[in-house]
Amino acid sequence: MPYHRIACIAFVAATVAIVSQMSSVLSVLEPKFAEPIPNVTIPVGRDVSLPCVVSNLGNYKVAWIHIDRKMILAVHKHVIARIPRFSMSHDGQKTWLLNINGVRASDKGIYMCQVNTDPMISQVGYLQVVVPPNIVDDESSTSSVAVREGLNISLTCKAKGNPEPRIVWKRENGFNITVDRRKKVEKQHGNVLNLTKVSRADMGSYLCIASNGIPPSVSKRIVLDIEFSPTLVVPNQLVGAPLGTDVTIDCQTEAYPRPISFWSFQEFRNMIFSGPKYHIVTDENGYKTHMKLTIRSLSPEDYGSYRCVTKNSLGEAEGSMRIYEIPRPFQNPKSTSGLLNEAAHIDLNKKHLFLLLFAYILTSWPFT
Asked: Which residues, if any, are the signal sequence (predicted)?
C-alpha cells in the first residue's frame, strides 16, 4: 500500500477520534436539572420561593412560566410579568429562585422552569395555595330572619376557601335543632338548614360554622324570629285578701313581635300605672313575659275585677282575675301552759269563794 494512502487513513481515524471525544465532552457539559421543583403548599398571604436547580447552565438562560395563567414570569434575572409581587434571584451557583410575596389564591397552579437549549428542556412544580374559610354574606341568609309560626323556613350559609369549606349548623343556646316535628339533632351539615313547621320553641340564634382544616374557622350568627299572636295564662283567677293588706296578682304572656301589655280595673274603665297605690313588675325572657300587679293597703273600692291585656300586630289576648274580701285571721291562740295557769287561777278563786260563803252561813245561822 502506498505510503500516502496510509497517512491519509491515519489522519481520518485521528479526526474521527477527536470529534468523538469533543462530542463526549460537549455532551457532559450540556445543561441539566440537578433537582426537581418541589410541590409546595402555602397559606394565602405568605411568601414563597420556588427553586430551579440547573447544572452546566453556561450561556443558556432560565425562564419561569405560570402554565395556568399562560404567562412568562421571568427570564434569567429579569421579571417579565407586570406583577410587583414576583421577583427573580440567583444564589451565584446553580439555584434560580422565583419569589412570590403575599401569595394570592390566583397564584396557585403549575409553574415551569425552562432552559433555552435545543431542544428546550423543562420541568414543572405545583403551588397549592390554601385559603381559610370565609362566609359570603351576599349568598347567605341575612343576620335576622322572621317567619310566621307553623310555616317552613330555609337558612342558607355559603363559604369560600381552599380546600372547599364544610358547613355545620348549631343553636347558640345549645338546644337541639328541630329539623322536622319528628327529628331533633344537635348539629346539621350542609349549606342549607331546612326547618319544617316552625314553632316558637325554634326561635333563637343559629350558628353557621365554616371550616376546612385551615385556621381559623369562621361563623355567622343568624337570629330566627317566629311571629305569632299573643297567648295569655292567669294562674289564679280568684284571690282573697283582707282590708288594709297588700295583694299581688299576676299573668303570663307569650307573643312575638314584642307586645304592648297593661293592667286595667273594672272592665277597662281605669288603666293602671305604677304609683303610690300600685306597683307593676314586668319580667321579659325572649317571647315570654311575666306581669305582676301589687295593690297596696286594700280598701273597699279596690275589690273587683282586674284585667291583664297584651297586644301585638298579629292579635291580642286578655285574662281577668277577681280580688274579693276575706276577714282578718284570728289572733294566735294562747299556749297550753298559759291556759293551764288560767285554769288553776280560776280554780283557786272558786275555793276562796266557797270558804267565804261557808263562814257566812255559820255566823248568821240561828242556833238554839
From this structure: 1-22
